[in-house]
Amino acid sequence: MMERLAIGVDIGGTRVKAGVVNEDGLVLERTGRDTPSTNPTEVEENIADLVHDLLSRHVVSAVGIGAAGFVDATRSTVLFAPHLAWRNEPLRDAVRRRVGLSTLVENDANAAAWAEWRFGAGQNETDLVCITLGTGIGGGMVFGGLLHRGRTGLGGEFGHMQVVPHGQRCECGNRGCWEQYASANALVREAKELARARSPRAEALLERAGGDPEAITGLMVSDVALSGDQTSIELLAEVGDWLGIGIANLAAALDPGTFVIGGGVSDAGELLIAPAVAAYRRTLTGRGYRPEARIVRAHLGNDAGLVGAADLARTAARRSRRRSGSRSRTRAERRPLFGVGQPSQRATRASIRSAK
């Protein structure tokens, strides 16, 4: 039973979520806590506390952690996390010492991609690209049933493809990155700009934000759009247009069968996906002479990163145990034939001399 359960942890900028996940990708229990601190040690202690709480009620085999940042090829160290004060942070070992279980660290978008391929919108697809639209844009790739992370583990950072030379300044230090035009930040920036100008077209948004343009959030824009506000619908369509252009570029480079769109902005559903599909078809190289990839909304929602991290950790722990068992058997096979219940080598050599 122990091998069937694993704990997944999803680290956000202000909150850590954890859950017990079974082999079918179902979350049996969830817990979480706010993490206002960006101090690495305090965040690690919060993770350990949540894991210990779940361990008091479940027997699990491993812990998987999804972190928003660059994770090295060994899936142990967070090289850089933009929303936490982590620089070359040995997160895997720090948590493993605290919880006493096999632990794995994975980029959160990679974990989400794996979850959608295993249990969500990408099932039965051989080659999948997952795009998560949150504060920025994350990405993950599963090709031929394997999570593709690149040589150093840093693949899938689609959000930092340059789509507008000398464009909007990005947190990464460059200009014109894709996530500056097709993310929650982009959506909120455009909505606030319209509201600050006190445009009559922003009336519904301002009313929802209590008259304060700075209080506008991406969720507000999506909710007002879903209620029929034309301005908010147009703002989402602009983000969708940029999303489709970026997807067309990725299709030219990677040629997957399916693009799965997740993250908070995807909650707008077809108000985002339909403009993205239209822009993708309009800008796809070789359009009309090549198959088109499917573009679908993610199925697992906010659980994707947690579920994927748990499943990856469980799989890695199981493989490690099998390798350990194989090495033990190999050592046993290489032992001398002379053992318990058998004559020693010295006694055997003596009996051979006597026979002569």
Question: What topology does this entry show?
Answer:
Layout (H helix, E strand, L loop, with lengths): L5 E6 L3 E7 L5 E8 L5 H16 L6 E6 L2 E2 L6 E4 L4 E4 L1 H9 L2 E6 H12 L7 E7 L3 E7 L2 E3 L35 H13 L6 H6 L9 H9 L3 H25 L3 E5 L7 H14 L10 E4 L6 H30 L11 H11 L1
Parallel strand pairs: 1-4, 4-8, 9-12, 12-13
Antiparallel strand pairs: 1-2, 2-3, 5-6, 6-7, 9-10, 10-11
Describe the model:
The protein has 356 residues and is α/β, with parallel strands linked by helices. Helix 8 links the parallel strand 12 and strand 13. It has ten helices and 13 strands. 41% of the residues lie in helices and 19% in strands. It has two domains: 2-113 and 304-324, Nucleotidyltransferase, domain 5 (2-Layer Sandwich); 124-298, ATPase, nucleotide binding domain (Nucleotidyltransferase, domain 5), CATH 3.30.420. The strands form three sheets. Strands 3-2-1-4-8 form a five-stranded mixed beta sheet. Mean pLDDT is 90; it is low at 337-356. Helix 1 runs parallel beside helix 2 (91-99) and helix 3 (108-119) packs across helix 9 (304-333).
Runs in which pLDDT lies below 50 for 5 or more consecutive residues are 337-356
DSSP helix count?
10
CATH architectural type of the largest domain: 2-Layer Sandwich
Structural class: alpha/beta
Round the mean pLDDT to the nearest integer and report it. 90
CATH superfamily membership of the largest domain: ATPase, nucleotide binding domain
Largest sheet: 5 strands, mixed
Question: How many domain modules?
Answer: 2
CATH fold group of the largest domain: Nucleotidyltransferase, domain 5
Shape, per Cα inertia axes: globular
What share of residues are in beta strands?
A: 15-25%
State the share of residues found in helices, binned by percent.
Answer: 40-55%
- Strand order in the sheet with the most strands: 3-2-1-4-8
Can you tell me the CATH class of the largest domain? Alpha Beta
- String of helices and strands: EEEHEEEEHEHEEEHHHHEHEHH
Number of strands: 13
Radius of gyration: 26 Å
Distance N terminus to C terminus? 60 Å
Q: What is the assembly state of the chains in this entry?
A: single chain
